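Table S7 (text form). Paired inputs.
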Amino acid sequence: MKWQRVPLGPLETNCYLFVGDQQECIIIDPGDEGAKLHSIINKQKLKPIAILLTHAHFDHIGAVDQMRDVFHIPVYIHKKEADWLNNPHLNGSQMFMMGNAVQQKPADYIIHQEDTLTIGEFTIELFETPGHSPGSLSYYIKDLSTVFAGDTLFLGSIGRTDLPGGNHQQLLTSIKQKLLVLPDDTMVLPGHGAETTIGNEKRMNPFLAE
């Protein structure tokens, strides 16, 4: 198994292609530029089987319907943000996109609690990591020593909490109780910017000294 980072849209939101041994893949956070993402997937002859969303801010969901419709695959989201997909106020597009509202169809699967998710050949542990948004999820792949952390934890930083449903203390609790307990060599794949490791963030992240 392997992963590929594909920055998309004006905010360079990281979409990830989580690829298995048989070229099946899971699309994580298809935020924008659906045609570009579609081209990358086709050129590599990948076979998407699902879309996982770390959360439902506009820059992480902009190409959801395009990917879902072209590949005929289901979308997964946390229950606390199930109604954000088609609500421009909640997903932030009304505020930041200057009238270009982002509205997507409802998700196919609603995640209600932490669990282990099996999709095709992939086994994924779901961590609820609210704070940046109330339904933020992190997806942990134990066999790959990797966690897809969305906008919860970044290289040297943490997610913003000044958007609807954000909570700074809750974010710090999520990071410390759900992510920093992972092995130090766990790769952290954030929603923006470069990857890091749990060990690196324990040592160097100034926000985690609080």
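Next pair, protein 2 of 2.
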Amino acid sequence: MRGLFIALLWLILTNHAVGQPADAQEREALRSFLEDTISDASSFDDRYDAEVWLVDMSARLARFVKDPKHRLELLQDIHAASAQADLPPELVLSLIEVESHFDRFAISRVGAQGMMQVMPFWKNEIGRPDDNLTLNKTNFAYGCRILQFYLQREKGDLHKGLARYNGSVGRRVYSDKVYRAWRDHWRTEPLDWAD
């Protein structure tokens, strides 16, 4: 059954428009990579959860990230950072879509960096001035923990927590954008978007 699922996963990922492997050797390398990626997905409850989530989210992410190997690595890193911060990974994917459209080199007009648009001053605040915010794992670790902090501070209110994350306290324009991205592209389970 596991082999069948890996074969199905491979077909879904490689036949999704761009990113189709060019030859048999590349296809085999991708198949092996998929199996290793799923086996390494330690932030999931079990292997089946990893397979289902990675296949589903990879298909959704294909419009932003064409390379299937890169999508899986990215999704695994996002899921791991989300799990460590006790955040729904779909919320983090929504935030990244709004903040950077999955561009790790994005820099905002105020200097925020990376996919989650983390302000560089945080590096000095925690005594890690040499951290590189364009490295995805670093950016996700910072961004997810910052979002976790603001959501805890706002007692789980998604609109208020996201407004704090974005620096737009008292307004809902940003949180509404994240909500629409979640609703239209990333939703898997309900989140409490209460007013």
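The two ends are 44 Å apart (CA to CA).
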